[in-house]
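About this split. The held-out portion is used to measure sequence recovery: a designer receives only the structure tokens and must propose an amino acid at every position. Recovery is the fraction of positions where the proposal matches the reference. Here is one held-out target exactly as it appears in the evaluation file.
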């Protein structure tokens, strides 16, 4: 199985995302295109495009970037409460067909500013039930004609998607990524996702979750190809170990005086986020170079824990995840423009010496 390396495009109109000091260009096509082309030119397969109400629409941005690149694969984050499944299945199939099969999809079930776009479902368990039904219907719409479906949350009558996804006649569809650490989330991943994404947990936590998900997939009678696994994490690398830790500690010091934002407070209540924040109680550095301190000072999601070190240090750490079965890596650091080049050139070349794509 080949290994995939993706970057991250924040997709926001506001400067300062995760401490990026770039002042101009946020939310413009030129800025996002520069990031996408830099990713394409420096060894990345594509990039996750961030989502959230109040940000540019991810599908619109992904379509524009696919038109301005050649091999770049947009990993488009979408929310079932924002999309109806037939509308999404059609939009995704169209973009996938137009781009020659480059679309990747990240399904997000967590709460956003749901009321702003009319999503009235706030119960986490119900949201995951809805996501599972959403994915079941989307898969049918991508592969069948005249689909009639009456579920608890969605329904269609005689629905046929045209065009189909690129390569649909050979059974191919866009790859579906999914996150979440709760029991309800793992039910969705084990049954319907193609790739389960983990945040930056230590190796023992990731190994435990991989084993549990494999067992659950077998118990549920998974109907699709075996579930694959991915890691979404910040990677801070410098030429030497000492320089990397100096800069990592300086970044954390600059974060320390900032108050927690409302979004950060919401994130702390998610099961996966709580797992990350609890890691700081085990120590500031876990495994070889997993830095847990950023989570104490406002780092959320992929910014909660960082892999810190020289290119060799971080490559060795990522190989350990690979030995557990991780084959999809979504990496980033800020400022995004120089780091997509630095990490692409210094880290990916080392990883590919032993993990040819």
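Reference sequence for scoring:
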């Amino acid at each position: 199985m080949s290994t995939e390396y993706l970057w991250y495009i924040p997709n926001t109109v506001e400067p300062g995302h995760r401490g990026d000091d770039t002042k101009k260009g946020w939310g413009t096509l030129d800025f996002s295109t520069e990031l996408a082309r830099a990713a394409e030119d420096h060894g990345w397969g594509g990039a996750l495009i961030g989502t959230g109400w109040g940000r540019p629409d991810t599908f619109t941005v992904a379509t524009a970037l696919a038109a301005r690149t050649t091999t770049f694969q947009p990993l488009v984050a979408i929310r079932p409460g924002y999309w109806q499944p037939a509308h999404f299945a059609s939009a995704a199939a169209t973009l996938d067909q137009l781009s020659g099969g480059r679309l990747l999809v990240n399904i997000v079930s967590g709460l956003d500013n749901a009321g702003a776009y009319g999503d009235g479902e706030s119960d986490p368990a119900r949201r995951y039930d809805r996501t599972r039904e959403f994915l079941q219907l989307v898969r049918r719409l991508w592969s069948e004609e005249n689909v009639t479906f009456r579920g608890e949350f969605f329904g269609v009558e005689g629905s046929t998607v045209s065009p189909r996804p690129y390569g649909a006649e050979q059974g191919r569809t866009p790859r579906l990524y999914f996150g979440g650490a709760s029991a309800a989330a793992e039910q969705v991943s084990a049954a319907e996702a193609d790739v389960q994404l983990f945040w930056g947990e230590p190796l023992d936590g990731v190994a435990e979750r991989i084993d549990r998900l494999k067992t659950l997939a077998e118990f549920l009678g998974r109907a699709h190809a075996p579930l694959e696994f991915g890691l979404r994490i910040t990677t801070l690398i410098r030429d030497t170990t000492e320089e990397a830790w100096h800069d990592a500690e300086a970044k954390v010091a600059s974060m320390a005086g900032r108050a927690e934002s409302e979004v950060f407070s919401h994130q702390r209540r998610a099961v996966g986020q709580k797992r990350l924040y609890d890691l700081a109680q085990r120590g500031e550095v876990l495994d070889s170079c997993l830095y847990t301190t950023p989570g104490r000072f406002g780092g959320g999601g992929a910014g909660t824990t960082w892999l810190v070190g020289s290119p060799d240090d971080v490559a060795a750490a990522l190989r350990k995840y690979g030995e557990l079965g991780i084959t999809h890596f979504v990496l980033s650091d800020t400022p995004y423009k120089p780091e997509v080049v630095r990490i692409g050139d210094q880290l990916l070349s080392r990883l590919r010496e032993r993990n040819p794509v």
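Annotator remark: The first strand starts at residue 4 and ends at 9.
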